[in-house]
Amino acid sequence: MNDNEPIITVLGPTATGKTGVAVRIAAELGGEIVSADSRQVFRRMDIGSGKDLSEYQYHGEPIPYHLIGVEEPGKEYNVYRYQQEAFKAIRDIQERGKRVVLCGGSGLYLDAVLQGYRFKFQEESQILSDPVPSAIIGLRGDRERIRERITRRLQARLQEGMIEEVQALLDEGIPAERLIRFGLEYKYVTLYLTGELHYGDMVSLLNTAIHQFSKRQMTWFRRMERLGFYIRWVDADLPEEEKFQKIYQYLQEDGIEID
Fold first, then answer.
1. Residue 36 sits in the same domain as residue 130
2. How far apart are CA 192 and CA 167, in angstroms?
3. Coil, strand, or helix at residue 9?
């Protein structure tokens, strides 16, 4: 890695395998992952937010990650705080001679880093002077296949204890209104647990909401392209080695040294 290399960003809608791709890139190129997910920053919100912490290893070796599980779910966490902590993590990783792999699907969080948002109340010393240069890999796939994966993943999370996870958050005193504001899994499971939805309706409405969320994510990424970001799109359904051959080709074209 040289000092002038851009960071690497892996983005895409839900259920396209972003984490697995980011983990392999980080493992093979000597990097660490900075998460860009607005719900994974909270502790004990694991199944519903899709943390999948077991994925952060490659061939048995753990891959370091940042900004996952850094705040209590009862407390507020906003895009400004995320930006500052992401900048700090990026500087720390780069100062240790490692590559930065920014990974996530929260468009506002990605923008805050890649565009270097400056908030009105910020002082010059609080921010980086420029946007963070990045080679951007986007994962997308056939709409129907993504829909199938979303549905399968939802069923798996329900079986893994997602309802029990939300119940535990309610039991520790997190207000139902707070969990509902997190949206998606936390919203609909909370509505079920508080008696406002039957189980079947909860599953059906949640499944539909996740599909709609996936579409909104793609709308945001297309907006990023209109703003000038060059996203190298890769088919998430390609065979693994073919997919990574294409990814590494794109990264080299964008100035990333591949050993």
1. yes
2. 10
3. strand
Determine, yes or no, domain membership for 59. yes
Which tokens go with 127? 């921010």
Q: Read off the pLDDT of residues 84-96 as tens digits, 9 standing for 90 and up.
A: 999 999 999 999 9
- Please, are residues 230 and 136 in contact by the beta-carbon 8 Å criterion? yes
Place of tokens 């709409």: 143
Are 100 and 7 in contact by the 8 Å Cβ rule? The answer is yes
How would residue 1 be classed by pLDDT, with cut points 50, 70 and 90?
low
Calpha distance 26→255 (Å, rounded): 16
Look up tokens 């705080």; give the residue. Answer: 81
* Domain enclosing residue 48, as ranges: 7-142+228-253
- Average pLDDT for the chain: 94
Residue 233 pairs in a beta bridge with 138
Is residue 2 within 8 A of residue 255, CB to CB? The reply is: no
Distance CA 26, CA 35 (A): 12
Residue 76 domain-assigned (yes or no): yes
98 strand-pairing partners: none
